[in-house]
């Protein structure tokens, strides 16, 4: 099987040089479809109304939002974009094979848990790594990350189980090689009193075209069904579903404060955490990094990637519900847009992290989405930008500390070491 993998993120290990290059090499045609990078050519568009129900009634209070508008929007997003997901499986089981080993010179304790999704334990299992501050006297809040790498590739700790990852030929292989990402500094979370947890997304569902036979979605096909129905889950919803299963585990662990879990992921995994957080309200906070098109960036704004590019069969069709692709050529008729995704997180804290030269993901489209969603946060008395807020420059932290937060680093399609520091600050305030 031939797959095109390497998310742009893999290539974006460091910002500076990459950013320069990205400007020069901006593709103008992708999958045969033009890409617009010219503000003057964006055109005009009207976003579907947030604060009016489908039967035309105004939504003026938090209660009307919660009881009427939120459920109907959630369904629209589910039907038209990510697809329906099954509930918690009845055979879900946890095997804690590392029960609290000291790590990072005794600063933390480490747990490793295998989450079995099906009764057959030979396949469909997710390794969950958790660090908690060793000196915690109460259940600990934590950041739950979903990653492109197996956790032993991501963190410097010799006690980690070596995971398996999908290779370019679509086979699972031992994750015993380093990645170009470099290692994540987990101690910064521990030092701030937070735990840190992570999973490899490929343990849930592979990330390539024709990956259906290998992931969790296959196990839910009904007899006679060869692929998910038009309104059923794509790979992004499957990854998000896996995060809810991690939450199922957290709820059983007395050392973890499951009411204070923040989700974080980047790029297609930024889209994933946004959907997981919207759908599963047990998550207290979402930090969506460079989520772009199909994430927090407005679809109607013709800049950078569009649904048309996503929907090309050679690209990311499998990541969304089949229904989504029907909008590729008529985005203005789509009943939803990204401001609705952002608003569906309200009143829970949401931080959008973007990059100033990540044109493909349209950082301005994410900013405008936040502006459009802000009235919903305000219904709940939460802090959010206003219509007159000017888009912050790269590195400007003035919108970081809102419940609906926005932060753009200087650089491209990546999460920089300084971004993680921002996340810690944000968690200190709102988690
Ligand atoms: C591609 C894709 C984006 C996605 C990104 C990533 O660039 O077009 O939609 O966010 O990959 O996951 O790195």
UniProtKB/TrEMBL annotation:
<protein>
    <recommendedName>
        <fullName>4-O-methyl-glucuronoyl methylesterase-like domain-containing protein</fullName>
    </recommendedName>
</protein>
<keyword id="KW-0732">Signal</keyword>
<keyword id="KW-0719">Serine esterase</keyword>
<dbReference type="InterPro" id="IPR054579">
    <property type="entry name" value="GCE-like_dom"/>
</dbReference>
<feature type="signal peptide">
    <location>
        <begin position="1"/>
        <end position="19"/>
    </location>
</feature>
<keyword id="KW-0378">Hydrolase</keyword>
<dbReference type="InterPro" id="IPR029058">
    <property type="entry name" value="AB_hydrolase_fold"/>
</dbReference>
<dbReference type="Pfam" id="PF22244">
    <property type="entry name" value="GCE_fung"/>
</dbReference>
<feature type="domain" description="4-O-methyl-glucuronoyl methylesterase-like">
    <location>
        <begin position="231"/>
        <end position="381"/>
    </location>
</feature>
<dbReference type="GO" id="GO:0052689">
    <property type="term" value="F:carboxylic ester hydrolase activity"/>
</dbReference>
